[in-house]
Fold:
Amino acid sequence: MAKATLYFPTDFKWAAATAAHQVEGNNTNNDWWAWEQTGQHVRGGQTSGLACDWWGAGFDRDLDFAAQMNHTGHRLSIEWSRIEPKEGQWDSAAIDRYRTMLKAMRERGIEPMVTLHHFTNPVWVVERGGWETPDIVPLFERFTAKAVDALKDLCDLWVTINEPNVYAVLGWSQNAEEMVEFASPSADFPPGKNDTQLVFKVVDNLMLAHGAAYQTIHRVQPPARVGLAHHMRLFDPARPNSPLDRFCTWNRDRLFNQIPLNAVIHGHLDRPIGLTWRVGNLKNSVDFIGLNYYSRDLIQFDRHNWEGILFGRNKPNPHAEMSDMNYGEIYPRGLFRLLKRLGRYNKPIYITENGLPDLDDDQRPRFLVQTLREVWKAINENVPVMGYYHWTLTDNFEWAEGWNLRFGLVKLNPETQERTLRRSGELYGEMARRNAIDDELVYRYTPELFETLFPG
Ligand code: FCB
Structure:
């Protein structure tokens, strides 16, 4: 049949992404574990428990699925609280375990990308003030040096920090749902504070730690490639012709999307009122840009309070198709728009996360075809996209939503640890094998898209 084939570049990475706490299980020595045990913060009092049992047998089983799906990359994170359980004490067994994981990936032809910080902290770090104080910067730098030195023969793609903006907003602003419509009414991250000043301090410290880690990684492993996984939401004015909606949209974009970019590209730490602070080692501190993209929000001016005046409020889009539990609008074109915007920085781009919660997998196949077509279009307009890391490989513990949101290409029953490849997983595996989307695949998996994609 092969009427049309959308080919990807030869070295394009077909991959998935995970995070330590969400998959390993029994991460008892970090702040998230403690947060879960209170029964107050995660939907229905759920806990991560054994998660996907990656510290046990689950890891190999999931990696077999990744191999079966022809993945050529995987993004995972390593858990600071396992590697440095007490200040200055290093656990060589934990390091060995990560070495085994990275080797197991390489044996299956899967190139690892390792994230050093994905939302969790050792309890001792939090007791010392966590991310609210710049004292964390040398602590994180020391951990980075140790981890990179121990793993550098197995990994040369590093992400310093996952989503500084999301981490700071969810942990330090109770208006989180206003700023970032993670539909969750319980979008509740430790330490669960509500202090706008601290949100900025935490972002500053995360960015300073990123800068320090960037330099450290290159000192320990000069040829390494280092980036940040930056979460961008697309904001559009609810009423495109309203100057007030447009102003709020612009403001929100600047604050949420642009601050981390300005930091790693220009070395600026921006403040909302236009003040900027220059930091030497932050300028040009990424070798690639990691983009985490999920959804978009429509923003409408709201004169009732100062946040609404400056940043507007989210207006539900009556025409949007939503993913499970109103997590967000399904808007694949947003990825193209963001990739075009990032293209101007002349850095390689990895899509370090993208996906949707869809327990019964009735939306994900279509989502994958549409999304990867947007990626293909961006590449064809010369945006240097190096790979796509689907969130996630296997259903995992989704933070404050617990087990309620299922993002996996592989379905997991957390009680029995039983796994099944979803139909979307099969489809993604086929795209990876062909390094392309073609009419035969679209016809087989998403016939409803056939005419739009391959007209005539
Ligand atoms: C991202 C997080 C990841 C997961 C997905 C759904 O913001 O980095 O851990 O929670 O959202």
About this structure: Residues 181-186 have pLDDT under 50 and may be disordered. DSSP finds 17 helices and 15 strands in the chain. The first strand starts at residue 5 and ends at 7.
